[in-house]
Amino acid sequence: MKLEELQVYQLSMEMGERVWNIVIKWDYFPKDTIGKQLVKAIDSVAANLSEGYGRYHYKEKKNFSYYSRGSLFESKTWLTKAYNRKLLSEDDNKYFELQIKNISVKLNNYIKSIGK
Predict the structure, then answer these.
(1) Half-sphere exposure of 48 (CA within 13 A, CB side)
(2) Which of 36, 67, 70 is nearest to 49 (CA)?
(3) Which of 23, 46, 70, 115 is 20 to 30 A off residue 12, Cα-Cα?
(4) pLDDT tens figures, 75-99
């Protein structure tokens, strides 16, 4: 199976693009503070999956998947801050909450499958 066929990777990539398309429209100060942190965190979800996927040993693949999960929950914090500071709409906030739950479940299942 190719990396691009993993649903957790696809969802992570989609979420990263959606975050980017929102943050890019923000004014300078919110973009420079919350925006940069959020984009880096959400992009790290897919990036760490990629890096782990390319590793030879399953333990490394698992470790990078744990980093990916950490970045997902860091993203959740930045999204909450963005919503609380009126940078995200209620609809976007609900979408991201659902996506984080969905990706989290799929990521945990992927981690459990590594090395079996």
Answers:
(1) 20
(2) 67
(3) 115
(4) 999 999 999 999 999 999 999 999 9
pLDDT 10s digits, 30-56: 999 999 999 999 999 999 999 999 998
Neighbour tally for 71: CB within 10 Å: 21
Q: In angstroms, rounded to a whole number, what is the distance separating the alpha carbons of residues 112 and 105?
A: 11
**What's the rounded Cα separation, in Å, for the pair 112 and 60?**
14
**Average pLDDT for residues 57-74, to the nearest whole number?**
96
Q: What is the CATH number of the domain that holds 21?
A: 1.20.1440.60
- Give Cα separations from 17 to 11, 24, 72, 112 (angstroms): 10, 11, 14, 27
Give this prediction's pTM. Answer: 0.94
Other C-beta atoms within 10 Å of 116: how many?
5
Distance CA 104, CA 110 (A): 10
Q: Which residue range is the domain that position 66 belongs to? A: 3-113
Question: What is the rounded CA–CA span in Å between residue 65 and residue 58?
Answer: 10
pLDDT, the chain, mean: 97
